[in-house]
Amino acid sequence: MADAIDIRELNEKIERQSGFVTNLVTGMNQVIVGQKHLIDSLLIGLLSDGHILLEGVPGLAKTLAIKTLASLIDSKYSRIQFTPDLLPADVIGTMVYSQKDGSFISKKGPVFANFVLADEINRAPAKVQSALLEAMQERQVTISTETFPLPKPFLVLATQNPIEQEGTYPLPEAQVDRFMLKVVIDYPKLDEEKKIIRENISGQSLTVKPVMTTQEIIDAREVVRQVYLDEKIEQYIADIVFATRYPEKYALGDLNGLISYGGSPRASINLALAARAYAFIKRRGYVIPEDVRAMAHDVLRHRIGLTYEAEASNVTSEEIISKILNKVEVP
After folding, report:
1. pTM here?
2. What is the CA radius of gyration of the chain?
3. Of 81, 93, 244, 282, which has the maximum CB count within 10 A?
4. pLDDT above 90 covers what percent of the chain?
């Protein structure tokens, strides 16, 4: 009975604390038409302290969505346009000689912001992408011999274009794994498209005002950590991730020749964190299996390696995840 009361108390607390979600979603919807999944994913990354990789053809409002979210929070935002001639110093900063002092001083790069938009991240060579790795994982940057902490919250939101392969560099597996979610964005629906046309030719530009501070985001993350995750849900998450590594143990022997490697422990951690944030957005103080299923594709799609056999048969990681979710027993 004590548990039931705790859950009820937790539900009420989350009901009170999650009011800002409505403000953020309303603010996003003023600028972005449709794309509910994209907006939810950005909020989940924000609440779980996880970086997001957005994949979609040009013109689907990926950059606009990130810029709008940063404008709704009173925070520092920077955009880095990744190009083949970009250098690590262009991202993290460098040492500059000061004639006045007769010494070298650190000049911080655009990565020192709360929201960093890495636009077309797959256009930059590995050297530049690795400069982002330390920032993403350790939340710090080393320039020469000095190490600087990054501001809180710190979120890398990267975009990549899946259709054009000329002049692009595939992201190293280690870096892709650093992204909590990989969100694939699709075209808007017909009625949404008409609304987009109408809004864009009207000539009116909306100015987005901040609705919350960075401190409120940090406080909200503390509340998200209190969302109750039952042991059975933990088991369910572990089973899903293990099924990507050892499909034969889950009566999925047909996937054996299709998966070259499965999700890492980071996949399990991120699936649990994302499910918690999803429950919070839905104003619930506990995680249910549906929350895990809702987040599974975004958390796992970039963490499953496909064999040549899978690629030759046109099998995608999406299909593999769907098969696993249909097979693994729901608690």
Report:
1. 0.85
2. 21
3. 244
4. 14
